[in-house]
Specification:
mainly alpha, about 80% helix, globular
Length: about 220
Amino acid sequence: MLIALVTFCLVATITPGPNNMMLLSSGASFGLRRTVPHILGISAGCAVMVLIVGWSVGSVAQQLPAFYTALQIVSAAYLLWLAWRIATSDAPGQSGGRARPLNALEAAAFQWVNPKAWAMVLGAVTSFARPERMAMDVPLIALVMIAIGLPCITLWAGSGSALKRFLSEPAALRTFNYGMAALLVLSIVPGLWEAFGRNVPADGLNSRSTAAKGWPGLA
């Protein structure tokens, strides 16, 4: 089970999604060092989310599939707004000092409106947490998610930081931000496709766990 869990977390955290697109953009705009709180916030936020979902919220989603669908719609609206902010953002120092990367608390809170985080967490909990051993399995999932996810998302921020020197010109940075915004919008599509393009079966959570495993990279 541990090998399967590690593989699941690797695929889910290293592939494109809202977190990684934001880290790539933050690394390019602010550098890796200033993006570290954002990275740590994502890891901590996902771990806390696993614990809460695994021990409580998961049962709500199982009994009320509409809860998860509503969450996807709200998340999509927020991410569209976030994409607009990225597309229209200025380079640091060009916006009156207001431009800054997300801090750890903001990054952790963002996971609750991140459809990929929900798909990953629900998929991990329903696939790898045994009902009779929830007290032990859920913390293990959280630890594995941190251990595997932290270097994966750091790679995205580091890649953005490596691009920083090529984005010193405002026109180049603007083009990059447009591209990151477009990729962020594309990362929403699978979740919206699931929300509007499929009928929710009676065993809502199990079917969504299957869906999460089917598209963990772009959830």
